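Q: Protein A?
A:
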Amino acid sequence: MSDKNTYKFLIVDDDEFLLDVYSVKFREVGHTVDTAFGGEEALEKIKKGGDYDAIILDIVMPGVDGFEFLSRLRKGNLAENAAVIVLTNHGYSKDIEKAKEFNIDGYIVKASTIPSEVLAEVLKIVSSKL
């Protein structure tokens, strides 16, 4: 784990542009960022010892989507100390409720938040969990 002022994040999405945008935003304020292009790659990084303070993931991804990722993460007892935050365009109540079944720490709708707001919300969630 990182010291109390900086954190190590894993951002999981299938949109390279968004991975870049959020990576830059988090790195600008001193955080360490690793990215994964989809759920399968993220699971591999975690299994290889990625010790993350928080995992930020999209729901809609090809192959292993966000729900499948959350299922495997929880069933495999992976990254148990990491905050898990869903960052998606899906603000449907059924998706939010389904994500909450996986004991997530936060749910942010991309379409209604700018990157600086995402950063602030993620930092609030992570600092309250750690």
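Q: Protein B?
A:
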Amino acid sequence: MKFSNYWPDYLREHSKPATRAMHYIQTVFGGAAILGSIATQDWLFLVAILVVIFIWALAAHKLVEGNRPAAATHPFWWSVVNDLRMLAHFATGTLGRELEKAGVTQAK
């Protein structure tokens, strides 16, 4: 599979609103923590935050979605880019359209 074709599969792997919400939290707070650790050159904190982010995503998939994180079956960076893409669509109000195109039914 090519990265350009992965987006619909990614959305189907994040079909539940609670899973997506956990990923939004992970993306915002994890991104801020990563940037902070780079700015302060605190490499131990960087490693720790990456572990926490991974555990958070794993929990979202295992406990809420009931599947394996996409990073387990695809290159890790594909999930990172699509986490950012999903957050951008959510923030701009266009995620519903993307979910529909991917065949994800949304609870009313």
